[in-house]
Amino acid sequence: MKEDQENNVIVVAWDFTHVSDYALAHAVKIAYIRRYEIKLLHVVQPGAPSEVIEDARRKMMQVCEETTKYNGIACKVVVKEGNLYNAISDYASQSNTKLMVMGTHGRKGFQKFFGSKALRVLIGSNCPCLTVKAKPVGDSVKIPNVVFPICFKSENKEKLQWAIYIGEHFKSRIHLFKYPIKESNLQKKVNINMNFAIRFLKQHNIEYEIHSAPKRTKFYKETVHFAEQINADMIIVTTTKHIGFVDYWFGATEQKMIDNSAKIPVLCVNPRAGALSGNLVF
Predict the structure, then answer these.
(1) In this structure, which of 26, 63, 86, 261 has its CB flanked by the most CB atoms within 10 Å?
(2) Are 248 and 215 a contacting pair, CB within 8 Å?
(3) pLDDT the model gives residue 247
(4) Rounded to 5 degrees, what are φ and ψ at 165?
(5) Averaged in consecutive runs of 10 residues, what is the pLDDT profile of the chain (282 residues)?
């Protein structure tokens, strides 16, 4: 597959907490395979004193130097002024970013009413966002097991390119997790999405397995439960296409995935980034 040479940056949202360290560790793992450049992005309030900005830049440069020294990966520092949510997503969208990686603390305090920081950021970005709550398991660059939930929505096809990308470069087995539904028209759409995924996975020689969710509770709960059972290394989902206040208040489906207690990384693909065509180009 052809690599877009201008789309070779992984942006790591940096806030000087332990989850930032986790995000960087995941970014290094992904960047290592294709030698992508990593950019640490920190956001300060508008009008922040210059000494605050320079102090942040200095501390981040130390992190970058260590990242390059020990992993051989180019790393740069970016400090932006502005609203946290908009500044991160705007920068990622405008800088030919391949992937954004963000550590998340989950929905705590007032965030349970206004949506988590991760959700607020990823819905505004044109690039996919990998949300993490823990450091990578082990030292291997492989991502052995990836859960790919399949429902009746057309956006299922858009995240498939990332399943193939990960499967090819990280020796992953893709677990197609099928949404059980009785309504014939929706069932037909689920089957179309399943067959579409199988066809492309076969074309790219990606190992896969097919699983059906039990008809017990909500699909996102069954997806997370299944991911925990197989010790999955990642779940790939699409973000809610038209997210609103109700989603922030009660939690969009992807937010509930992100907050999984097993701390499995969740790759969120924004459906507004463009639909999947017959030819996959990376």
Answers:
(1) 26
(2) no
(3) 38
(4) -60, -50
(5) 61 93 95 92 94 96 96 95 85 84 66 48 77 87 94 80 94 94 87 94 97 85 94 89 42 74 91 45 36
Contact residues for 239 (Cβ-Cβ < 8 A; gap 6+): 122, 123, 252, 254, 268, 269, 270, 271
Residue 251 has a pLDDT of: 42
Q: Per-residue DSSP letters for the chain?
A: ----TT--EEEEE--SSHHHHHHHHHHHHHHHHHT-EEEEEEEE-TT--HHHHHHHHHHHHHHHHHHHHHH---EEEEEEES-HHHHHHHHHHHTTEEEEEEE---S-TTHHHH--HHHHHHTT-SS-EEEESSPPSSS-S---EEEEEE-S-GGGGTTHHHHHHHHHHTTPEEEEEEPP---HHHHHHHHHHHHHHHHHHHHTT--EEEEE--SSS-HHHHHHHHHHHTT-SEEEEEPPTT--HHHHHH--HHHHHHT-TT---EEEEPGGG----SS---
At residue 273, the pLDDT reads: 44
Give strand pairing partners of 38: 10, 75
Instruction: Give me the domains of the chain, ranges plus CATH numbers.
Output: 9-132 (3.40.50.620), 145-264 (3.40.50.620)
**pLDDT for residue 117:** 57
CA pair distance 213, 225, nearest whole angstrom: 10
Residues in the chain: 282
Crossing angle of the two packed helices 18-34 and 50-71, in degrees rounded to 10: 50
Beta bridge partners, 149, equal: 177
pTM, 2 dp: 0.86
